[in-house]
Design brief:
Strand content: 15-25%
Number of domains: 1
Distance between the termini: 19 Å
CATH class: Alpha Beta
Helix content: 40-55%
CATH superfamily: CBS-domain
Radius of gyration: 15 Å
Number of strands: 5
Oligomer: single chain
């Protein structure tokens, strides 16, 4: 099974935010869309970083409420691992587990074309095994 098959079922829509907005805005977007991560992108296509719920919680624990006013560009992970639609899902799953990554952008020629989460991967394997 390939990553592209997951994207066909779940969709390719990805929430992106500009790097110059505050963490508080990212919190609002995560809640609004009921998602665990957003991609930082100035143009909505090139991946410039990723910020997750876990990153925000750790930032709040370390810096307090002032963390919410920081710009995403200043607090986010910029070295983002990504995969391609043609990648084998099992290989991506193993990589995500080893690196403890829960969200992975899907790119083609450096441009964002989707996002998968470890939950998406698990859902595919459970469906394949006919487990509901």
């Amino acid at each position: 099974m390939q990553v592209s098959e997951v994207l066909e079922r779940k969709g390719k829509n990805v929430v992106t935010l500009r790097p110059d907005i505050a963490v508080q805005s990212a919190v609002a977007e995560l809640a609004k869309h009921n998602i665990g991560a957003v991609i930082l992108s100035g143009n909505g296509r090139r991946v410039e970083g990723i910020v997750t719920e876990r990153d925000i919680v750790r930032g709040l624990a370390k810096h307090g409420a002032a963390y919410l006013e920081k710009k995403l560009a200043d607090v986010t992970l910029h070295d983002v691992y990504s995969c391609k639609p043609s990648d084998d899902l099992y290989t991506v799953m193993v990589f995500m587990r080893r690196r403890r990554i829960r969200h992975m952008p899907v790119t083609v020629n450096g441009m964002l074309c989707g996002m998968i989460s470890i939950v998406d991967v698990l859902r595919e394997y459970l469906a394949k095994a006919n487990i509901k």
